[in-house]
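hey team, just a heads up i'm posting the complex here instead of the shared drive bc the drive is being weird again. everything in one block, sequence lines first with there labels, then the predicted structure for the whole assembly after. its two chains so it's a bit long, scroll down
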Amino acid sequence: MNALPKKSLSYLAAACAFVFAVYVVLMVTAMYFASSATELAGIARSKEADVVALETEYYAAIKELTKTDPASLGFVTPTEVEYVAAVGFPAFSRAE
Amino acid sequence: MRREFRLKLRIFSGLVLVAALLIIVRLYFLQVVHGEDYLLRAERQYQSREDIFDRGSIYFTRKDGTLISAAAVASGFRIAVDLRQLEDPDAAFAALEEHVAIKPEVVAVVTAKTDDPYEVLAVRVSEDAGEAIAELDIPGIIIERERWRTYPAERKAAPTVGFVAFDEEDEVVGRYGLERYYQEILLRGDSGLFGNFFAELFANLDSVTGDGRGAKEGDIVTSIEPMVQEKLGQVLAEISATYGSRSVGGIIMDPKTGEIIALDTYPTFDPNAFRESDPDLFGNPLVEHVYEFGSIMKALTMAAGLDAGVISRGSTYTDTGCKTLNSKTFCNHDLKARGVTGMQDVLSHSLNLGVAFIAEKLGHERMRGYFTDLGFNTETGIDLPSEVRGQMGNLDGNIDVEFATASFGQGIAVSPIEMIRALGALANGGEIVTPHLATAVRLENGIVKNLSWGKPERVFEKEAVEETTRMLVNVVDEALAGGTVKVPEMSIAAKTGTAQLAGPEGGYEAGKYFHSFFGYFPAFSPRFVILLYTKEPQGVQYASETLTHPFMELEHFLVSYYGIPPDRVPASDVE
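-- predicted structure starts here --
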């Protein structure tokens, strides 16, 4: 059985160390992102409750607004309404 | 060699140290910097006895594109007690009651069980109250995180939004409406937030590299506009209050896209408290019930006659007031014979004999073809569960009187959603579209998937529809409420319908009516088509009495709210 080349063991050890280091780095990165994602999800979801409360207020507000008679707030029907036909902006043209 | 080995060992040790340091730094942040947060959570969540509820949201869309939740998940706390650890029950309950109302009967029942390790005192306790109770740090008081489905829109479109409830397998699932239809999209797996943080840290590693659930789980975005929905709900409630109807319903749809802007029925229920509501209200009559709509069908018969070329706007027929076919007699609503009558009068005075004349001209096969193309015997494909299709069996045979009665909306029954899809053809250049609620799905992975609802299908040629529209505009300008509801600067096409209601033993019941009303505007480039109906209104016979003003109120609201510009010049302004 032939002996391994002299430096093989060193190379293998270095490779092992490198692979292990990469593994550790990847694990730490994955943990970091997982924890960040969990944190962010937590923040987002805790804000959801606030948003729902605001939305409930919004619905209550539009309920009041929609059933309010404008006249009761002092608004009056205009005595005269004039409509103006929409006119497009004139295109630029080169002077002749 | 030995020196070399030492060097490698040092490098390796260094790497391990660096990795360890990174983990320690991260743990420092988790445990020290944010420690209090997690501790608070952990205290509550470790004790949670069931999975924490999560589910996608259902949104309404405001006219400016802002999304407003119609169904969401609320967060709070559940307060329980371990009586074995409770030292002074009276003092503890007194302290709790400063923050949360606990029913006296619950206290009485709970305190009787002195060795009970877990009894619930209060559920759905607010965040603030829960935090305050946690700070009291009462031994034996258990504070658990709780999340639950909430419907901020409350009664608005309740049968359409639906609600979640426990199924036979004790799972919380969508039972009605959109909640049920989009169950697979709204359903969430374990969210990973409220369990053991470190367990989730590792358990969730796969979600960092890619999570298949993110591609199918999401939120539903609908086209329902909350302000319009509110207005429609108020109008329907008002109709019910005024006429004591058995039920009232309405749909507002964009005829070009099929997007439903608002839809509702009355009476309705609050999905936040569905247990206290009548279960008969949970279904959605707009898609699950069929009705004989009566005279609004005449607009479609007229369009079919014009499209087939069997009549023109100038055509006339001899109106005898009543007519007998196959030994059955049908009449105009006022039994009057009008002699030679034009097509405009058929719609303006809602003459049954006039549309029966068109049906006769069309012939059985052609009329059956038009009604089939309008989708009266097929489901519309709307994204709501339990949709039924219309009953058009009377047109399967070749009995003249069945075709005559179908031409004025009696003898065939269709759902409100089928009816508005068909009527939408008049407001969309002769093409029918698929009515729908969801416009997009916001996936968990951040991608917004816009939904496509198929291409429109042509039923009538554009010219036939334009001619019908001109006649329907004339109905509003001159006939409806004696022309008093005409809007000088806005063309509105509309038609009323009054049908007799069939009794349980066949035949029609005297004095019981089904009123319907449809309209679209601006008539020649419509933004909205509206369908209203009311079943068994009391003390009135005709739909023109019950539904004209509610329709006009909605029209004025929509024109104002969306800032729809006038489409015609008032006659007084024309020199």
